[in-house]
Specification:
The chain is mostly helical. It is 75% helix and 0% strand. It contains 21 helices and no strands. It is globular and about 70 Å long. The two termini are 39 Å apart. The relative contact order is 0.07.
């Protein structure tokens, strides 16, 4: 007898609630409380399915409800969270400003702290995260600071904070526990500790079975370990449920890494078409992927630089600065590439990929000693840094 997995059961519960609340969205006058619950459930569903069409539907419902009932705090917060998920930082600020009291609420403060990090204000972001935890020691705030610490190379503090976050969860919050296990697995993966990463991913699956994000992370791990056929098979399973162009790109890159250009090119074509369709629809969250695509997968310096500058305009931080440096390097604008990699490194972020890129750029401008230093730093973080890795 088939036993539904945790992911399926949660979707069934969400759909049941949506069916109960659906009439509230069109009622006259609008039942604000029920309609707000309805759009929150839409957002909840989209968040766990990863469906962009569901996010579009959710955004339309939020906008319609705000137009009908005004800038309700909870609705503005939901809109801000959705905009943040898709890298629309200026929009997040506008959303929060629609309901000024949000800047004094814990949830609003958390988003403002995340914005500081995304805009490259690292010292201010660290202070904001610490103040958040002092005021409201919740699992998600602990995870925010853990992520920051991990980026800055303090892996011991990051691991401890993730453990504390787990302790704050209740027995009912198994999807959140699984998400924390995935973050701990990523921390291990980026440091080349493959078996530790696998253990975290297995715990995530045990805690919340059937979740595509667990399968996607496991596929990434298999690829890093050189288990390419298994990784591709698992990515294809994920793509049946979540047909995202970044996953299609990964499949194409895996085939290319294996030397199978014939299999690689159709997947890369699909990925590029998906990215461009997203942009044409007015979305911005794939700018970073387009930068990567034209800097590395199908090198085109002018295209890479175009998308990198668009990404930088949205959120000027180490990731967009290094993305632009990579794009400029691809376009042989080495002096400009050096300027932006210097900016990225000044963030204090300790990332293997960042250091490996710095090594390439410094070597190209004749700064050989610095290049060797950064190659050593990359290897110290992850001895397997030359293995296949996924661009996120």
């Amino acid at each position: 007898m088939y036993k539904p997995q945790d992911y399926e059961l949660e979707l069934q519960q969400i759909d049941k609630h949506l069916a109960q609340l659906e009439s509230s969205i069109d009622s006259k006058p609008v039942d604000t409380e029920k309609a707000t619950k309805y759009v929150f459930r839409l957002y909840h569903r989209a968040s766990i399915t990863g469906s962009f069409s569901e996010f579009d539907r959710t955004e339309s419902a939020i906008d319609s409800l705000i137009a009908a009932v005004g800038p309700n705090e909870d609705l503005c917060l939901l809109k801000a969270n959705l905009d943040f998920k898709f890298h629309r930082i200026p929009n997040v600020k506008r959303d929060l400003a629609m309901a000024p009291a949000l800047s004094r609420r814990a949830e609003g403060k958390a988003l403002l702290a995340d914005i500081l990090f995304q805009e490259g204000c690292y010292t201010e972001a660290a202070r904001a995260y610490e103040e958040l935890i002092e005021e409201n020691r919740t699992w998600d705030n602990l995870a925010r600071l853990a992520y920051f610490k991990a980026k800055m190379g303090d892996t011991e503090s990051a691991e401890q904070l993730y453990l504390e976050a787990e302790d704050e969860l209740t027995a009912k919050e198994m999807r959140s526990y699984a998400w924390l296990q995935l973050q701990r697995g990523v921390l291990d993966l980026t440091h080349g500790r493959y078996e530790d990463a696998r253990a975290h991913y297995m715990r995530a699956n045990q805690a919340y079975s059937g979740f595509w994000q667990v399968e996607e992370h496991m596929a990434e791990l298999l690829a890093a370990q050189g288990e390419f056929e298994q990784a591709i098979a698992l990515y294809k399973q994920v793509l049946e449920r979540v047909p995202r162009p970044d996953f299609q790109q990964t499949v194409g890159e895996l085939y290319a890494f294996m030397g199978d250009a014939g299999q690689a090119e159709p997947w890369l074509d699909k990925a590029l078409a998906g990215y461009l369709a997203s942009v044409e629809a007015g979305h911005v969250h794939y700018y970073h992927h387009l930068t990567d695509f034209f800097a590395d997968v199908r090198p085109d310096g002018a295209e890479a630089v175009k998308w990198a500058y668009k990404d930088l305009a949205l959120r000027n931080n180490y990731a967009t600065q290094s993305g632009l440096a990579w794009a400029l390097y691809t376009g042989t604008k080495i002096d400009d590439a050096t300027r932006f990699i210097d900016q990225a490194l000044s963030s204090g972020v300790q990332e293997c990929g960042l250091f490996a890129l710095a090594a390439k750029i410094y070597l190209a401008v004749g700064r050989v000693a610095e290049s060797e230093t950064f190659l050593s730093k990359a290897a110290a973080i992850n001895p397997h840094y030359e293995n296949f890795h996924v661009h996120r």
